[in-house]
């Protein structure tokens, strides 16, 4: 008998209502789908492959073959489509309803499933599921509530039973849709905070069977002994201690409790998410552990905003706060064992260098928990870093953990036994090695350096003035020195007599040396000085003779 127009216009009042797509262990034979009659009339399923027979699609079309029960589904009744009915009954021995054998291969990441009552020409029911809502190898199914999917609250799911009750979330949570994914639901509580452990851990009075110790989801605040530990703890205490807060927990079982037995949760009070407030204040970093509640990209943006203004723990990320301060490329002895690199903290704050990178082709990631004291130093040896500094010249970079360049230096051929050392105006090779301590310069070499970037001050003293860095071929600078005198050597070249002394990286230069010229100018310098000296002697002799004649010889002649 042909279908009536009414039948053609009215599709079967059946819908896919529950999915077990990723059974614990092997999925083979353990996958199943529940269908539910939500209408007021019975629905007859035509099995097999004949005319008007039904189809199930998981990307491929499959026939339905009755295994047990009836092909007629009464209102408010269920039927199971099972890949392997015998295995299904082993898993659910109490089940006694309708089962259809349907070959299926449900994707563990998510898929679209469909039902057809006309051999796949049209589809009257279609749903899409995702492992983001749970059910992935954790022993729980996905259950439908209206048009959304939620993880079953009963292990093994509820095949041919009423789905788990879904408690609606408060409407005020809609304002956090930019940061929280509530499309798959959440476990919701209200409870009072009765203890604050640190910046990311607290305790509440009751969580209905879940651990009352809560680890704030998505963030990581400093541990005891690290910068901003106390500030983060105080912030949490002032914000939530002894107050009733809203608590959101992922419905996915695997995302509810951490390895230390603490409940992973988002805390809300006075329309503020505590977790995000700590990120905004620079009192926590992002802790990117997968959890369906968090819209990770937007949380990352909040962290980046704090980084951009060097707030809280991000103070160390301000360029110039930490620098490469000294390195020893060619030690006396075994380079493999004795090379080292020194970093210096130029601020008055303790800074956290966890995850920073020293890089010279081979990356060295500074271990988590590494801090550098105010105005302090850290030394990393070659056995630690595996970074080999080339004796014939090389470069070295320091990066933040996010890959942003912090500092970079390069040098030419390294003298054996000398470290390359930072000075406020440049870099110097020195025999005075100062690993993990303030740099000291004790070079007593005085040189004549070609004047390139100071105005000529001919035959005059430029007191209390220090030269700018003197350029070499590779733009690395020599030791800054005090200008003593500028003299003219030829018509086109001017040279400045420079003197090097004993310097501290924090003190002004103190001249301790005698003037010398570089070898290329020494002969000229000696000849000039001899000539000047002879002229001065002659002038002294001449004027002395004149004075003798005027004041001694002439008066004596007058007496006679």
TrEMBL record:
Name recorded for this polypeptide: LTD domain-containing protein
Transmembrane segments: none
Entries under Pfam families matching the protein: LTD, SNase
Keywords of this entry: Endonuclease, Hydrolase, Nuclease
Stretches assigned to the LTD domain: 310-453
Highest taxon listed in the record's lineage: Bacteria
TNase-like domain: residues covered: 187-316
Organism: Candidatus Nealsonbacteria bacterium CG23_combo_of_CG06-09_8_20_14_all_40_13
One MF annotation (Gene Ontology) recorded for this entry: nucleic acid binding
């Amino acid at each position: 008998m042909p279908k009536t127009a009414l039948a053609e216009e009215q599709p079967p009042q059946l819908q896919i209502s529950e999915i077990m797509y990723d059974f614990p262990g092997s999925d083979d034979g353990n996958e199943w789908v529940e269908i539910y009659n939500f209408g007021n009339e019975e629905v007859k399923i035509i099995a097999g492959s004949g005319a008007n027979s039904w189809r199930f699609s998981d990307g491929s079309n499959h026939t339905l073959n009755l295994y047990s029960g009836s092909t007629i589904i009464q209102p408010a009744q269920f039927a199971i489509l099972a890949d392997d009915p015998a295995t299904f009954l082993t898993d659910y021995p109490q089940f006694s309803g309708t089962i259809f054998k349907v070959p299926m291969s449900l994707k563990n990441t998510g898929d679209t499933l469909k039902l057809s009552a006309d051999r796949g020409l049209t589809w009257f029911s279609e749903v899409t599921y995702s492992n983001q809502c749970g059910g992935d190898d954790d022993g729980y199914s996905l259950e439908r509530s209206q048009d959304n999917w939620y993880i079953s609250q009963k292990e093994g799911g509820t095949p041919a039973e009423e789905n788990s009750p879904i408690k609606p979330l408060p409407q005020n949570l809609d304002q956090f849709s930019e940061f929280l994914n509530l499309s798959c639901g959440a476990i919701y509580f209200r409870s009072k905070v009765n203890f604050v452990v640190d910046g990311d851990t607290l305790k509440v009075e009751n969580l209905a069977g879940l651990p009352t110790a809560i680890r704030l989801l998505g963030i990581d605040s400093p541990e005891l002994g690290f910068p901003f530990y106390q500030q983060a703890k105080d912030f949490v205490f002032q914000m939530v201690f002894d107050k009733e807060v809203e608590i959101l927990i992922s419905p996915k079982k695997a995302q509810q409790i951490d390895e230390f037995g603490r409940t992973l949760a988002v805390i809300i009070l006075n329309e503020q998410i505590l977790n995000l407030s700590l990120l905004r204040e620079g009192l926590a970093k992002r802790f990117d552990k997968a959890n369906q509640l968090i819209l990770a990209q937007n949380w990352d943006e909040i962290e980046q905003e704090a980084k951009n203004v060097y707030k809280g723990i991000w103070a160390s990320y301000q360029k110039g706060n930490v620098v490469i301060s000294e390195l020893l490329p060619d030690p006396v002895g075994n380079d493999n064992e004795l090379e080292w690199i020194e970093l210096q903290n130029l601020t008055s704050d303790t800074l956290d260098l966890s995850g920073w990178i020293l890089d010279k082709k081979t990356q060295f990631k500074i271990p988590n928990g590494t801090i550098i004291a105010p105005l302090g130093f850290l030394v990393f040896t070659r056995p630690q870093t595996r970074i080999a500094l080339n004796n014939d010249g090389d470069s070295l970079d320091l990066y933040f953990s996010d890959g942003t360049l912090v500092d970079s230096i390069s040098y030419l051929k390294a003298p054996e036994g000398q470290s390359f050392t930072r000075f406020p105006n440049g870099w110097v090779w020195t025999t005075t090695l100062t690993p993990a301590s303030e740099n000291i310069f004790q070079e007593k070499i005085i040189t004549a350096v070609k004047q390139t970037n100071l105005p000529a001050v001919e035959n005059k003293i430029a007191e209390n003035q220090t030269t700018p860095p003197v350029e070499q071929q590779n733009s690395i600078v020599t030791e800054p020195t005090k200008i003593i005198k500028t003299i003219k050597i030829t018509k086109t070249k001017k040279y400045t007599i420079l003197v090097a002394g004993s310097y501290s990286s924090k003190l002004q230069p103190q001249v301790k040396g005698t003037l010398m010229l570089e070898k290329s100018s020494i002969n000229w310098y000696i000849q000039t000085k001899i000539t000047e000296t002879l002229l001065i002697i002659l002038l002294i002799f001449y004027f002395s003779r004149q004075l003798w004649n005027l004041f001694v010889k002439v008066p004596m002649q007058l007496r006679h």
